[in-house]
Amino acid sequence: SCALIVGSLIYACETYPQIDAFFAQNVYILAIVSVVLALLLVCEIPMFSFKFKSLRWADNRIKFSFLICALLIAVVQTLIMGGFSLSIWIFATFVCYILLNICVALVPKR
Questions:
Q1: Are 14 and 100 in contact (CB under 8 A)?
Q2: 3-class secondary structure, 3
Q3: pLDDT-flagged residues of the chain (< 50)
Q4: Which residues contact residue 103 at a Cβ distance below 8 angstroms, ignoring those fewer than 6 apart?
Q5: pTM over 0.85
């Protein structure tokens, strides 16, 4: 997943000049993203899976929240950029997945 995220960023830089300009001005961002992702690969954050045993909200609220977040990212990206880019959507969705798992891990269970 780390290679997919960094690869989608590199592809987005080649496709969209405004993203390329951002990374040209901030040359260390891609290296920092790579190091953070490498550290996330070895840390022990419990990740949720997409196995649905039922379609009830109470059983699958994290999964449904992630799907809603991924759809919102696609809509916002289309509105802001004037079109849909699969590479940017993959990057943003993976970031959302990682952040959602970190939030779930930090919230104490009842």
A1: no
A2: helix
A3: none
A4: none
A5: no
